[in-house]
Each structure stands twice: as C-alpha cells, then as structure tokens.
C-alpha cells in the first residue's frame, strides 16, 4: 500500500499522504542504506594490513582470519550496494584486526614471561647449589 | 474538494506503515549479544588486572557498550544494535588481551630484574670471596714476611754471634800469635810440653849456681813476659851432665833452678807463677861422652805453660 496507489485523494490528502510516505521512507532509509563507507573501509584495510604479520598469523590465526574475512565481506557488500552491511563489516574488521594483534602480543608476552621466569628459576637453583659449597 | 475522513484515514494508514517500519528496526527482545557484552563489562570493570593494565581500553569498551545500549533503548534496528554490541564485545576482548599482555610484560620485567639481582648478588659474593682470599693471602704473606723477618733477625743474630765468636777467635788467635811471637822473642821453642826457654851453661859459673850477668839479661825479657801475662806460669828445671856424683849434680841442678826463680822473683814476677826443681843428670839432651854434649846437657830450662 503506497500513497500513489490511492485513486481518490484531495490536494491536502495527497500532500499529507506524500509527506507521510516520505516520512516512512526516511525512517526505512534510516535503518537501511547510507552513503558508501569508503573511509570505514579504508580504515579496516589499514588495520587488517597492519595486523597481517607472520607473528600475528602464527600466534592468533583465528582472530586474524576473522578480520580478513570480514574485510572481504565488507568489500562484497559494498559491491552489492549494501552500504550498511559494508560499514558494519568494515568497522568490525577494524576492531577484529586490533584484537588479533593484541592477542598475538599477549601470546608472545606469555612465552617471554615463561622463558624469563624459567631462566630466573634456573639461575636461582644454580646459585642455591653453589652457595652451600 | 475535501475528503477529510479519507484523508485522515490515509494519514492513519500511512502512519501505521511508518510505525510498522519502525517496529521492523527496533526489537522488543533485547539483543543477546548486548546482554553478553554488559555482563562481560561488569566482570571486567572489577578485574584488578584490567583496571591496572588496561584502564583506557576498558573506558573505550564502556563507551562502545553505552553506545550499543543507547541504540537499543532508542529502538534502533536489531542489526545495528547487534553490530554495536559486537563492537563492545570486541572492545572487551581487546581490553582483556591488553591487560594480559601488559601483566605478562610486567612479569617478564620482574623476572628479568630478579635474575639481574641474583646475578649481581652472585657477583658480589664472588667479589667478596675474592677479596677475602686476597686478604687471607696478604695476611699469610704478612705472616711469612714476619717469619722471614724473624728468620732474618735470627740469622743476623747468629751472624753477629758468629762474628763475635770470629772476633773472639781472631782476638784469641791474635793473642796466641802475639804470645808465640813474644815467646819466640824469648828464644822459647815450642815443644809438646809447652814453650821451652833454655838458659845455657855459659850463663853460670862452673860448678856454681850464681847466675852471670849475661844470664840475668836473658831473664829480663822472661820476667817482663810473665808480668804482662799473669795467666802464664814458668816451671824452672835444672839439668847437669854426668860429671861428678849424682847427688852433687842433683843439688847443683836444684840450686841453679832456684837461682833463676829467685832472679825472676826479684824482677817482680809473682811467686805463684813460678816453680823450680832440679833434674840432676837426667834429661840429658846429648851424649855426655863429648865436651860439646856435656855442655849441652848443663842447662836450666824454663817451661812456659798457661795456668789452669
């Protein structure tokens, strides 16, 4: 049911109908498409590229893969003209890439901490063996 | 041309469509993703490690969560609310990973510092031990030095004593040599019994005991020697040849010995250094068959000996 399909309407009624229709369209447009998210996509591409290191793909492969996949989906959505999805996917890809980076860093930090603690422990044991002599 | 009713109806219908469109976007059921994000944030906001190491990330997660919740409260369409909720959740994941990472880095730094501290302590102990060894070695060296010094002192003392002994020996030698020289000057001949000075027959008148002046002069040197050496004794013995009776010869030898002793005493020699005896015909040095032999046998001997 659209305003233009109504055959009998007055000028005022027509005006009101058109206005109401515009309002509805505006509301629908509000939850659907927006301008192409070029900037968001550029940010996502930069973030994913930054995260796409050998270290990250080794230490946090699933998280990085998620970001890469979202970036690809964002591009596809943009190509379809689904700007809203493209923006959401780009925004998510950006954050996913940051998460992948940070997870990889945590993994590396855990390895470093373990090694350093082991080295300190080894040194302590060595000194404890030495000292009594 | 007015159709108020129709117009109103149309407006109502259009408005209903708009509301329906709104209803399609908003959702009466809360986003499960947003509910999860809220629960995660509540847990994270009380996590000490996160508050210490990722407070800025937590603040950003809170902002993302509030944006999502505001969108849900505003009735924004579900896909967008879910999207915002997803972003909030990822912010929370980022917060957790950041806190983990920084806490582990702190652990690494602490362990590294601990290792450095232990190494330093060990080096300090090693240095202390080396210092103690050095001091011990120095102390031992000092003791050795002292021992060496003591040895040196002992050696020097021994050397000094030795030198003194040497000097004493040298003095004794010198004294002995001087004595021997003096005795030689007395015409005293060294024999097994001691130095013997012989006063020949020519210094006595024949058959008599009186000493002639020549004999007395020979005794001056002996008297002088005995006075300068109170430790030296003179044993005076008289001898004769075998002419005449043995008794008279004994008597003559005694008197001649006494005469010599008297002469020495008169020259100032202490009587305690002197002794005299007659040996008569005994103790002949040569044969009494010849005149020369008999002259040799007639004599007075002075035996010079060190007193005991």
Give a description of the structure.
The complex is a heterodimer of chains A (133) and B (308). Chain A has 133 residues and is mainly α. Chain A has helices at residues 11-31, 38-51, 54-59, 61-80, 83-130. Residues 1-13 and 21-33 of chain A have low confidence and may be disordered. With 308 residues, chain B is of the alpha+beta class. Chain B has a five-stranded mixed beta sheet. In chain B, β3 (232-239), α7 (246-266) and β4 form a beta-alpha-beta unit. In chain B, α4 (55-73) packs antiparallel against α5. The model of chain B has no long low-confidence stretch (mean pLDDT 82). Classes of the chains: A mainly alpha (133), B alpha+beta (308).
Largest sheet report of chain B: 5 strands, mixed
Q: Whole-number average pLDDT of chain A? A: 81
Order of helices and strands of chain B: HHHHHEEHEHEHE
Question: In percent terms, what proportion of residues of chain B is strand?
Answer: 5-15%
Oligomer: heterodimer
Low-confidence stretches of chain A: 1-13, 21-33
Total helices of chain B: the number is 8
Q: Summarize the helix and strand pattern of chain A as letters.
A: HHHHH
Number of helices of chain A: 5
What's the shape of chain A? rod-shaped
Classification by helices and strands of chain B:
alpha+beta
Summary of the model, kept short:
Chain A has 133 residues and is an all-alpha fold.
Descriptive key words:
heterodimer; A: 133 residues; mainly alpha; 2 domains; 5 helices; rod-shaped; B: 308 residues; alpha+beta; 5-stranded mixed sheet; 8 helices; 69% helix; 10% strand
